[in-house]
Amino acid sequence: MENLSRRGVLSLGVALGLVSVADSAKAWAWPAADSVAGTGTGADPEYVWDSATDPLMAALLKNGQVPSVNSAMAGWVNNGDPLPSGFPAELTAHLRQVNRLPSWADRAKLTRAADFNRRRDTYLFMLYGLGSGIMSTVIPREARSVYWSAGGADMQDRAAKTFTFGYDLSELRAFEPTGQFIVTANKTRLVHAAVRHLLPQLQQWKSGADQDIPISAADILVTFHSLGTYVHSKLIEWKIPFPAEDQEAFLHSWQVALHLLGVPDEYIPKTWAAAQAQSKQVLTPILAPTTEGIKLAEELLSLTAQVDLGVTRGFQNEFVRYVLSDEVGDWLGLRRDYVAAALVRTAWPTYIKFREGLSPIMPGTFYMMDQFVRALAMLFLNKGSSGTTTPITIPTGNRPT
Ligand code: HEM
Question: CB of 220 closer than 6 A to ligand 1?
């Protein structure tokens, strides 16, 4: 994997709206006082995995019990569902501990977050889909583990499963007994534990890895910043009305999500300012292209090209460049379309202004932009609105080679 110059890191961080000045200091210097726990051990999350889940999942994989766990898991969907009777006793005992909200969860904030997600879904689809989704391909560890895990062989299916997470998180009753998010997050935690056991057995993953075990707590925080922190910054940069209560609620839903994914509370940022500081430490310095990431980005962008978004692939490429910088676009080899580039840079801000009632003048390109965002939303929503979300299953192997 290529290394970025410090200068490159600085300009990229600024372009992504993630930092004002990036600090490439290596040591873990983010203060636990800024976390939801308010205190901590100071241990570097780079070397923290999931000690509660990983040994359990390794044993289930070794004993060949995962296929039967997957079958039992299919009927376990709502937060209020009893744990499946087909689960091995140790898995049931573990889930009894973790399949619930943390004591500090604030239901009123979670409900507000769901409402915010609904009100702002247009921008969220655009930013999560074309911003965070493509950013994940320039996060070297994430790109390589997604590529070499079983799911990497079918990106459409994987994208749909990942969407399940966002969809279940955004449901109005996501955290209530009839919602599904607590279960979805716990299933994801099991999947991550399985990946930690499986990927180190694959030579192709090992040969390019800079860690012995994938998906550390630090890696999960990186992904959170590429999603939540990035989207938060962009909404502010785009001057979308974003009241403080909405900002707080949006952060809170991510705090709870991180807790449910097994990240210790001492690493979960308490405020957006703390999240920005952490992002500056863990995300910005590590962005870089990889062979695997370039292939994944191409696959993801051709998925959206399969459906008519009302715009050309050149326009999509330029939109990605607009939200992630030309530097990222160049890394990923996104073909230039200068006419589309000029259009995106003028039409998108005008579209936002009109949509938000900040300008009475409807831009001539309004319908094209509107069709683009709606088509993209429908592409992602397809699974959700059909009522059947793609079930998350625990992998038993890596990408077939
Ligand atoms: C699986 C979400 C962090 C690598 C999944 C799944 C979800 C998910 C919903 C299940 C869907 C599926 O099986 O494809 C998240 C969220 C994260 C996060 C919300 C952080 C906020 C990470 C990180 C890595 C990673 C940091 C690697 C560095 C993987 C891999 C799979 C997976 C390899 C398994 C794909 C397979 O089935 O082969 N993740 N993830 N994830 N995730 Fe994550």
Answer: yes
